[in-house]
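User: Please predict the structure of the protein below. I'd like the answer in structure-token form so I can feed it into my own downstream comparison script.

Assistant: Understood. Taking the following sequence of 203 residues as input:
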Amino acid sequence: MSTSASPLALTVLALLHYKPLHPYGVQRLIKQWGKDQVVNVSQRASLYRTIDRLHAEGLISVRETGRDHAYPERTVYELTDAGRQAARQWLEQMLALPKQEYPRFPMALSHLMMITPLEALRVLERRADLLAQTLAGMEAGLTAQADGLPRVSNLETEYLHAVTVAEERWVRSVIDDLRTGRLAWSAEEAAAFDQAAGPETGA
């Protein structure tokens, strides 16, 4: 794939597939359509850098530069034929090919022995409660969006809901094991695990 391929880059191309837009319009549609659940647009600079890369690679082109006394100058972009082809290729690859990703939660779990079982119980209880709140919000959104919209427009929320349900269920099972003592470790076991890693050696 192109060096510009990323979730944000694909989203930009996908939105320009429907109509030409300026960067602010792209950001606004991402939020209006709920795509900020799956792509990070919290930093506007990231969006502008992505647009610049897509433009440099010829995947999008400048359609016009708008001037309005009420707003700063706005460049409107449109999809090129190369961009349309790239968007389809990226979409098919992202759908078909699982990619090894490195989310923070599994990484943190791999270092759980740094804290005590009681501390782990408390932080995981907090996570489970937050997951439950997230699920409640997702379910309300799914119910609200079910009216008048085709299911295909909301599949990413369905997926995130299913993943979050599974995560909450698993986290609560670990919490139960910590409460009952089925999952436990001691400071001595943590120290032994550290020693088993072996001493650091120089190059």
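That's the full token string. The mean pLDDT is 88.
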